[in-house]
């Protein structure tokens, strides 16, 4: 989809905001805290019905408002038609409800909505992923999969819900459950977790297998060919004796059953893809512990390039690249390298920066500079920085 227009109502710090996208680049610029990332978050919401900053959608509704709306219009290149996608958020006392609308029609099922706008996100936090927590690395992989496989978003949501329910039962938090009922409930949760969890696990393994070659090549181009690089999925389930013959769902179901007594004592679920990780090695050494800052960034950049190449090859067109404030983390030389490599692979790209002169893209033609100022999108933003 080629993005043409975005309209925000009561979203984050925007009471109302409208902007037209550049055909290739849209540079959102302004000081810290004015709402630039909020605009990327709005686009990400339309792509995935999720936020990349908060699990709860409540904070996306402007303080004091009960409802928020994000609407994107653009051109669906595959259908050759104009298209409009909207997400409405309604905050109630207990939760925030979301409603997806495509071309005026409500879309009840998430998987029917995901993928109409396909977006790949790159934030400064991604640059620290190798040194950060396994949770951050799993989110990093899952975000890559959200753009690749629309079923993955639904599986992650189902898995998280089942996991929370299983953990509540393990901790005895559901009052009034007898001992016999507890086992029946756990059996049901285990079956659901094994089904969704196996799909998550298999997709993550396949993603890494598919990206491995392009990742190594992109890293070699950025950093040189003198260091060997590997990329592996890490799961405790892989090495279970005799497990190789069973399919992933059966292996996960058996592992959950086997861990149940232990999990009851711990009050939490200790096996499954919510405990998995991925491992990047430079000449056999763990990159998280041994790579220099520059190497770690080059590795993540290489992963994103591989992700963009894969997405373009699969869908026949490049997804929209959402690039949040990356230049602030890099020196000018690295910044130039990053833009050169990423932008070569990207189709349409929406980027935020406090320093538009850093971006170095000429205004006009396919590039539009838009100034953001405390919840206001300045009109007439197609001039240069
Ligand atoms: N629900 C909300 N209602 C009103 N304002 C909000 C809401 N959520 C966030 N904000 C405001 O949005 C602003 C943050 O916006 P954002 O993170 O997009 O800034 P930014 O321009 O990307 O800044 P930086 O350059 O530092 O990354 C803050 O001023 C915050 O108070």
UniProtKB/TrEMBL annotation:
It is found in: Cytoplasm. Pfam families: SMC_N. It comes from the Bacteria. SMART domains: AAA (SM00382). The RecF protein is involved in DNA metabolism; it is required for DNA replication and normal SOS inducibility. RecF binds preferentially to single-stranded, linear DNA. It also seems to bind ATP. Its main location: cytoplasm. GO terms for cellular component: cytoplasm. Keywords: ATP-binding, Cytoplasm, DNA damage, DNA repair, DNA replication, DNA-binding, Nucleotide-binding, SOS response. Signal peptide: none annotated. PROSITE patterns: RECF_2 (PS00618). Belongs to the RecF family. Residues 22-376 form the AAA+ ATPase domain. The keyword DNA repair applies. ATP binds at residues 30-37. The keyword Transit peptide does not apply. One of its GO terms (biological process) is DNA replication. One of its GO terms (molecular function) is ATP binding. It comes from Nannocystis exedens. This is DNA replication and repair protein RecF. Gene3D superfamilies: P-loop containing nucleotide triphosphate hydrolases (3.40.50.300), RecF/RecN/SMC, N-terminal domain (1.20.1050.90).
């Amino acid at each position: 989809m080629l993005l043409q227009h975005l309209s925000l109502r009561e979203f984050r710090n925007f009471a109302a905001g409208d902007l037209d996208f550049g055909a290739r680049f849209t540079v959102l610029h302004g000081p810290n805290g004015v709402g630039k990332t909020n605009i990327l978050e709005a686009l990400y919401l339309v792509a995935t019905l999720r936020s990349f900053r908060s699990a709860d959608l409540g904070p996306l509704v402007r303080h004091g408002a009960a409802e928020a709306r994000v609407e994107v219009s653009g051109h669906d290149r595959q259908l050759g038609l104009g298209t409009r996608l909207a997400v409405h958020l309604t905050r109630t006392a207990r939760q925030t409800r979301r409603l997806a609308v495509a071309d005026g029609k409500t879309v009840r099922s998430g998987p029917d909505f995901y993928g109409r706008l396909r977006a790949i996100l790159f934030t400064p936090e991604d640059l620290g992923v190798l040194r950060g927590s396994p949770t951050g690395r799993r989110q990093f992989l899952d975000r890559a999969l959200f753009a690749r496989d629309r079923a993955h978003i639904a599986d992650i949501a189902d898995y998280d819900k089942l996991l929370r329910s299983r953990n509540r039962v393990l901790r005895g938090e559901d009052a009034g459950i007898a001992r016999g009922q507890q086992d029946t409930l756990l059996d049901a949760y285990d079956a659901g977790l094994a089904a969704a969890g196996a799909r998550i696990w298999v997709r993550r393994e396949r993603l890494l297998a598919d990206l491995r070659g392009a990742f190594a090549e992109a890293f070699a181009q950025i950093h040189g060919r003198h260091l060997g690089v590997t990329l592996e999925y890490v799961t405790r389930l892989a090495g279970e004796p005799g497990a190789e013959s069973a399919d992933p769902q059966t292996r996960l179901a058996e592992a959950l059953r086997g861990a149940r007594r232990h999990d009851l004592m711990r009050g939490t679920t200790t096996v499954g893809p919510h405990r998995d990780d991925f491992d990047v090695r430079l000449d056999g050494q763990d990159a998280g512990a041994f790579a220099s800052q520059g190497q770690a960034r080059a590795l993540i950049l290489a992963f994103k390039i591989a992700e963009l190449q894969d997405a373009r090859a699969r869908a026949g067109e490049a997804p929209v690249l959402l690039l949040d404030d990356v230049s602030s983390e890099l020196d000018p030389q690295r910044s130039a390298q990053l833009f050169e490599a990423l932008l070569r692979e990207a189709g349409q790209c929406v980027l935020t920066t406090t320093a538009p002169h850093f971006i170095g893209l000429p205004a006009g033609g396919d590039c539009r500079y838009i100034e953001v100022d405390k919840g206001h999108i300045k009109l007439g933003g197609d001039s240069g920085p």
